[in-house]
Design brief:
2 copies of one chain form a homodimer. Chain A is globular. Helix content of chain A is 16%, strand content 38%. Chain A has helices at 12-15, 58-66, 79-86, 95-98, 131-134; strands spanning 4-5, 21-26, 31-36, 39-43, 48-52, 68-73, 103-104, 113-114, 119-127, 136-146, 156-158, 163-172. The first copy, chain A, is α+β, with helices and mostly antiparallel strands and 178 residues long. Chain A contains 5 helices and 12 strands.
C-alpha cells in the first residue's frame, strides 16, 4: 500500500463532501469494520468530526471502550464490498477476512488502516457526552494518509437502500474567505 | 414554485449523501440565508440532524434565538449563487434581494422556502446543549418539500475553497436491512 501523509489542515476537504466511510475498530479479538454515512466536520484543525454509530451496531461498545478508530474512505470500485460490509455484523464474522480487506498498521491507534481505500484517518474519540442521547461520537483525526497512486479518486455517497451517487465532475468557482 | 410534500421518512435520502445546503433564518428585520456543508443525519423519523453554524456567522444568534430555520437543497445550476451567498454576510445586506432568490411561505416556521431549490425542509431547533462548545445545533425536520418538475436533480458537494464535486451517476447495489 502506497501512502502519503496528508496535512491535518486538509482533512476537511475529504470529509466535507459527505462520502461513505468505513469505520474500523480494534478490540482484543480482532479488527472490525462497518460502513457509515452519518458524519460531519465540526472543526478544521485539528480536524474534529461527529460520527453517528447506532447502539445496535457491534462497533458501538468497542468504540465507546477503546476510544479509537480509523476512518477509511473508499472509492467507487470498492462499492460492492462497502455494501456487503454494511449489511452484516462483526459480532459473528471477521469481515476483513470475509471480504479480503487488507489491514495495514496505523501509526497512532490500534485499529488498522485499510489498504484498498483512498484515504485513511487515524482517530481518537475526544467526547462521549452525546453518545447516550444521540449515538454521536466526537472524534479527532490524529494522522491522515492518502494513496498517491490513485489518481482522480471517485467517492460514493449513500442515498439510502443501496442507492449511491458517484462523484461526478469537479467545478471550481470564485471563492474567498469571509 | 411547484412543490410536493415529501414523507418525513424519506428526508434522510436527501441529506445522507452530504450535499451543500442553504440555511435560512427569519428575524424581525428580514430573512437571511447562508450556505452550509457541515451537517449530518442523527435519526430517521422524525428526521433529526446536526448542523454546525459558526458563531462568527450572522445566522448564529438568530438561529439560537428563533430556534427555527429552513434547509434548502440547491442543484448544480444554482452553484454560482450558492458560493456568493456563502461569501458575504447578512449583517450588511439582504441576500435574497441581492441574489434574486425567491421567498415562498413555509407552513410550519417563519423562515421562507427558496423557490429556486430542489428541496426545502422546515426545521425547528430541538437541542442547543452543544452550541456553546461545538456550534452544533440539533434540528428536527417538521415538513419537507421537493419540486417534482425538477427531474434528475444534481446536487453539489463542497470540497473546500470553492471546489465542488457534482453528483455523477447513480448506482444501485444489492442491499438489505441488518
Amino acid at each position: 500500500m502506497k501512502k502519503r501523509s496528508l496535512p491535518l489542515s486538509q482533512v476537511y476537504r475529504l470529509l466535507e463532501p459527505g462520502p461513505v466511510v468505513m469505520l474500523t475498530t480494534q478490540n482484543s479479538k480482532k479488527a472490525n469494520v462497518m460502513t457509515m454515512s452519518w458524519h460531519m466536520m465540526i472543526d478544521f484543525e485539528p480536524p474534529i468530526l461527529g460520527c453517528v454509530v447506532s447502539n445496535r451496531d457491534y462497533t458501538f461498545d468497542i468504540l465507546k471502550k477503546t476510544k479509537e478508530c480509523v476512518l477509511s474512505i473508499p472509492t467507487v470500485d470498492l462499492a460492492p464490498i462497502v455494501v456487503k460490509v454494511g449489511n452484516c455484523s462483526g459480532k459473528k464474522i471477521d469481515k476483513f477476512e470475509k471480504f479480503n480487506l487488507t489491514q495495514v498498521e496505523s501509526s497512532c491507534v490500534a485499529a488498522p488502516l485499510i489498504a484498498e481505500c483512498y484515504a485513511n484517518l487515524e482517530c481518537k474519540v475526544v467526547d462521549t457526552t452525546m453518545v447516550n442521547k444521540y449515538n454521536i461520537f466526537i472524534v479527532e483525526v490524529l494522522k491522515a494518509w492518502v494513496n498517491p497512486t490513485m489518481k482522480n479518486p471517485k467517492m460514493i455517497h449513500h442515498c439510502g437502500k443501496g442507492v449511491f451517487v458517484v462523484d461526478g465532475k469537479r467545478i471550481k468557482l470564485p471563492w474567498h474567505l469571509k
